[in-house]
Amino acid sequence: MLWLLFLTLSGxxxxxxxxxxxxxxxxxxxxxxxxxxxxxxxxxxxxxxxYNKGLELWQHVCGGSLIHHQWVLTAAHCxxxxxxxxxxxRVQVGRMRLYDHDKPTNVTQVIRHPEFNQSLSAxxxxxxxxxxxxxxxxxxxxINLVTLPPASLKVPERKMCxxxxxxxxxxxxxxxxxxxxxxxxxxxxxxxxxxxLYQNSSNSFGEIIKDDMLCAGSEGQDSCQGDSGGPLxxxxxxxxxxxxxxxxxxxxxxxxxxGVYARVMSYISWIRQYVPPSPGS
Length: 281
Fold this sequence. Notes:
This protein is globular. Among the domains are: 44-133, Thrombin, subunit H; 160-265, Thrombin, subunit H (Beta Barrel), CATH 2.40.10.10. It has helices spanning 191-202, 268-272, and strands spanning 35-36, 45-52, 57-68, 71-74, 89-93, 105-112, 129-133, 160-165, 182-189, 213-216, 231-236, 239-248, 259-263. The protein is 6% helix and 30% strand. The N and C termini lie far apart (40 Å).
């Protein structure tokens, strides 16, 4: 079963709770291979929230990245609920732990890529969306922007990159309190190889991994449900560059199912239609 298409959003037909009850801590370091991120290492990481009436809080549903003082990059499938538009979301910036001194920012505009197909969801491609914040955020040691790549950037196979988020630490195991941001290093998997792996599992001969997708991960090193929308970043010339957006996959941390990401390089011109380059970039 695809690990993020609806399971990331409780109430969309999935029965898996987003997080365990407080106090029911579970051991960390599962097959997804994550560990606590050091404070300040990933200052562009944000948490996308939706209001949970039962819990009376703005609950984490997906990740995202700050690409401009007033714009967040995330996955389109994180925003695809037809009954939820901009007013149904908030964004929390600058926090390593979920629900720790929260002051979520209002979202005033949600822009999904026009080629994103809601019925196909992430597997259909174009799984990318922009969120405009109500007001520009103030940059600091803990809040900063990630660099976008040039459209021409080619990410070599086996390059080691990093993915971050507050998702499950292994299949079926939500991140326990205190909900510390997790990080894991993942190798890039060439699209042809990735496509073959997914074809083998589905007995399909069609194109599963599309040109606008990017694969990364290995056995025990992967993103997982709840990480959707978050950034995959690689280091180039001493700069962290976002090359992917957590999109979809099968069985977290399985050697035959690398995580699948929206390829940011494929959408730079679309992003620039809405998001101006930040001063100094």
